Predict the structure.
Amino acid sequence: MRISVVQMNPGADKAANVAQAEALIGAALDADRPDFVALPEMWTCLGGDRAQKFREAETLPPAGSNLPGGPAYEALRAIARSRRVIVHGGSLAELDGERLFNTTIVFGRDGAELARYRKIHLFDIVAPDGTGYRESRVYGGGETVVTFTAGEVTVGLAICYDLRFPELFLALRRAVAELILLPSAFTLQTGKDHWEPLIRARAIETQCWLAAPATWGRHEDRGEPRFTYGHSLICDPWGLVVAQASDGTGWSSARLDPVRTARVRADMPVLDHRKLA
């Protein structure tokens, strides 16, 4: 299976973001012909104020219903169906009653929804440069570990700050994941030091492929400039980075080799040797 991770520079204009995603996915499909494409975290509306986040959020149709959804939901479904490709929709703001959730949606080649996942760990920190982030002021947290099947590959779902919690990744490995998707909007301050080391660590610990599409560049959040790190990447089960995007928008692609996964796990069966939960 060949996968492309798409790197975007979204802002608070949802229509412009959808157009950017469609263009980048189309270019990646034409150039690299992947079986699977993945978008970054909150690509539909990154930044803006609380009211704008609620305006741009989408109420999702019931899982498995095949009912119509919002503009971003339908744009992703249309790409999956028309290009016969699996589309991992990064994450978008899901409106559920009076709450928002940071939610991943995945579509199969026929446009049917394969999986959805709500981000479990919310980003409530002060970055090294003093910038404060409090995701829980706007979003609720998920509670469920989610996997799905893409062809013959079991795929686990995580989002951005989840990366710092290895117990989630162990749960995904125990759910027989071979590939873990990590859409992100990692801050520039934390990303330049922790992005690649943490992804490589999670890949080594779980002996899974990690595919991490990310946002890059500047956006405005409540009138303040914010910067995300980018460097979308794909990492193999030995912890080697096999594909990585540079600065700017674009994509990077790699072929996932199941033989490589099986060899790494057979040579070092760490899951069998684990003594603690």
About this structure: The chain has one domain: 2-273. The two ends are 32 Å apart (CA to CA).
